[in-house]
Amino acid sequence: MGIRVIGLPSRGATAAVLVLRRTAAAGVVAGIALAAPGTGEIQPANALTPEDGARLEQKLSTILGRADTESPEARFTLLLEPEINAFLRFQGASQLPTGITTPTLRIGDAGLVSAEAIIDLDLIRQQRTRGWLDPLQYLAGRLRVTASGTVRSGGGVAQVDIQSVTVADISVPVQVLYELVRYFTRTLDHPDGTRLDASIPLPYRITELQLSPGQAVIVQ
Fold this sequence. Notes:
single chain, alpha+beta, 3-stranded antiparallel beta sheet, 5 helices, 26% helix
């Protein structure tokens, strides 16, 4: 995800968003934390606490710190689904890209990653002239976008296989998600954003994402 800093967030929160921006895109959260129903059970929003998000913030700061050092043995960091969603709701909310609100993530069986967010589609639709066959020509305003797909990783790269994408509960082509992810993951160093239809390099010496229901293990 790209980053929009509002006010003066903590250094830890900024670091955590940097990690989520890269690894989430690799896991279809990412890039955006868009989604559809998954096999994992998501924590109710009113059950999430700032303390859950603070735990994730500390873990992601640890991941960033390990990126500067080599180790003869693999290093593992466990990220729990409630911690991820609490961080997105509390510590990281002000640093989400403009146009994305209330993202949630769930991790199911067999590498299935699902997410959900309210997206301001006007930001994307107005980027260029669109033909009458382009679905984004007809999608406007702030709508709930959902997507799900499987994630495979190893050797420092991740691959995503998108299974479904919906906007306001209407099925749309996967190309819509590809464009959304590219738009919201643009940075000064990578102005074209992340391509979900290609292998995605994992940053910070991350070699693998081990996914199981309700959790992700970051391997460095």
